[in-house]
């Protein structure tokens, strides 16, 4: 069993922030290296060209000047990051919350956070400093646009927020001030437009997607110095689609440093918690930012455990085989009986089962949290979102796949007191799984703090190994009306 709460999955935007410390060190080294190297070259050019063509020499000088300018912008960025790290460390040591200039801003407290002070400070630093450069190359619909509804909604919502968000304070005005660079390509849109029609086996090969991403990167790497200077380590691409992880399979070298922000944070599929970021899959009903709130208070929750969904993948098959339509307390359905309302049923259940389907991430986890239903995660090799900030044991359960047959006993074994505590924590953690437009502090888009610092200075507590199952939940297709966004599974 590996530990799920992977050390470094990050939280969204901020993720980048602290990871950067790391990136930047490497950067400066590279840059220095480059610089020296170039120096050398310049000499060469100067010597050979001056006599022949002085305008060339002038160009070299300009380049040289530019280089210096760039270097100092990197140094400025590094100084800012060093200050951010220092104040996070200090907040950890002093256990104090820095007063915010912004009124009414939420302050994280309590056991759902591994370290609320670090989280708070990291968020504060992010709000103050983080700048993201969004590459402008390319035209919609494959880039600069993504789905804003259904289960891949986060792709489009994120692109729209960062590019057009009215108060997107994170948008860099110039790439020289950016901490991170965003490649605004939506995998879901590519699958939708490029993989059509789908008739032969070839129509399911990932290479067309891979080439598109590689072409985009090669264009920006030709035009600007940013990709090359870090080998992409400060660049990221965000995808919720099942095929997201595949973007990098065709050319592992090109992508070995780039951050991938993925819903399908399947470690067996190459998700690297130290480099990539796990984000929640959120199924947005058309025109809405959340499912309807049909959540009942604990005493009116009459169902012990609830699941409805298709028999996708091995874990769900196992679950359905053992529990489908067999028990009133543990209600497991492949198809909901007519007249039943999915959201309503979640709102009157104590526990909501979130098994993997074809892929690890499932919108159920977020739906359960919205419905005040304690998520029960039945997964393997899944890095849960925001696991470096949030202590998932406080508001969710994990049951190992081998113990699916014991679900009822295990859940009945949870005392009323323990359940109420988890229920209360689900209510508290909800704000981090809520999507707002424009995004708000500590909401889903803003979650994504600390990472490296916290984890280098604060290794995760020893987690009770018995409770740990690898998280793996799947993206759920059965409730999605639009079939065209689906991958072959
Ligand atoms: C000098 O170099 C510039 C730029 O490389 C070029 O456009 C120009 O024709 C050159 N002039 C001569 C005299 O070679
Ligand atoms: C070189 O640059 C300087 C200042 O930037 C300019 O005054 C000068 O005319 C340039 N020389 C040539 C040959 O382009
Ligand atoms: C970045 O590296 C690639 C591959 O080595 C090269 O083709 C490209 O010209 C470089 N970009 C810049 C801006 O120097
Ligand atoms: C995935 O999960 C299985 C079952 O828990 C485990 O045996 C395996 O080592 C995991 N693989 C990776 C790469 O984490
Ligand atoms: C469930 O009920 C709510 C509230 O009545 C409604 O908004 C929602 O569309 C229903 N969901 C389904 C899947 O019918
Ligand atoms: C995770 O990835 C591995 C390797 O591709 C795959 O075999 C497994 O089915 C995936 N897990 C889920 C739940 O899809």
TrEMBL record:
The chain crosses the membrane at residues 12-28. It comes from the Eukaryota. One of its GO terms (cellular component) is Golgi membrane. It is found in: Golgi apparatus membrane. It holds the Pfam family Exostosin_GT47. It is a single-pass type II membrane protein. Belongs to the glycosyltransferase 47 family. One of its GO terms (molecular function) is glycosyltransferase activity. This is Putative glycosyltransferase. Residues 127-412 form the Exostosin GT47 domain. Keywords: Glycosyltransferase, Golgi apparatus, Membrane, Signal-anchor, Transferase, Transmembrane, Transmembrane helix.
């Amino acid at each position: 069993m590996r530990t799920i709460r992977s050390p470094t999955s990050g939280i969204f935007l901020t993720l980048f922030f602290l990871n950067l410390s790391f990136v930047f060190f490497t950067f400066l080294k590279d840059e220095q290296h480059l610089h020296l190297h170039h120096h050398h070259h310049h000499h060469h050019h100067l010597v050979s060209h001056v006599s022949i063509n002085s305008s060339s020499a002038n160009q070299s000088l300009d380049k040289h000047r530019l280089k210096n300018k760039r270097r100092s912008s990197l140094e400025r960025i590094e100084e800012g990051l060093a200050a951010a790290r220092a104040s996070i460390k200090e907040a950890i040591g002093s256990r104090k919350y820095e007063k915010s200039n912004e009124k009414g801003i939420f302050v994280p407290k309590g056991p759902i956070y591994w370290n609320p002070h670090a989280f708070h400070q990291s968020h504060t630093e992010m709000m103050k400093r983080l700048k993201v450069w969004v590459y402008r190359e390319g035209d919609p619909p494959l880039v600069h646009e993504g789905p804003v509804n259904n289960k891949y909604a986060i792709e489009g919502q994120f692109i729209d927020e960062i590019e057009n968000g009215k108060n997107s304070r994170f948008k860099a005005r110039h790439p020289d001030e950016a901490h991170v660079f965003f490649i605004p390509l939506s995998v879901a849109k590519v699958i939708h437009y490029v993989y059509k029609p789908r008739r032969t086996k070839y129509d399911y090969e990932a290479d067309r997607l891979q080439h598109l991403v590689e072409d985009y990167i090669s264009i920006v790497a030709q035009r600007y110095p940013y990709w090359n200077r870090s080998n992409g380590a400060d660049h990221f691409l965000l995808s919720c689609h099942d095929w997201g992880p595949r973007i990098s399979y065709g050319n592992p070298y090109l992508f070995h440093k780039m951050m991938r922000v993925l819903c399908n944070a399947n470690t067996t599929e190459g998700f690297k918690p130290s480099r990539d970021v796990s984000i929640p899959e959120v199924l947005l009903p058309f025109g809405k930012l959340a499912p309807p709130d049909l959540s009942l208070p604990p005493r009116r929750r009459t169902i012990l455990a609830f699941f409805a969904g298709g028999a996708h993948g091995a874990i769900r098959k196992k679950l359905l085989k053992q529990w489908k339509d067999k028990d009133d307390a543990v209600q497991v359905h492949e198809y909901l009986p007519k007249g039943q309302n999915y959201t309503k049923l979640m709102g009157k259940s104590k526990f909501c089962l979130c098994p993997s389907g074809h892929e690890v991430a499932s919108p159920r986890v977020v739906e359960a949290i919205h419905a005040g239903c304690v998520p029960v995660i039945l997964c393997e090799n899944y890095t849960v979102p925001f696991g470096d900030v949030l202590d998932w044991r406080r508001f969710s359960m994990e049951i190992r796949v081998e113990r699916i047959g014991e679900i009822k006993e295990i859940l009945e074994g949870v005392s009323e007191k323990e359940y109420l505590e988890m229920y209360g924590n689900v209510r508290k953690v909800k704000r981090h799984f809520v999507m707002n437009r424009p995004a708000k502090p500590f909401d889903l888009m803003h979650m994504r703090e600390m990472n490296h610092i916290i984890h280098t200075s604060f290794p995760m507590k020893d987690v009770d190994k018995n409770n740990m199952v690898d998280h793996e939940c799947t993206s759920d297709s059965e409730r999605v009306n639009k079939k065209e966004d689906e991958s072959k599974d």
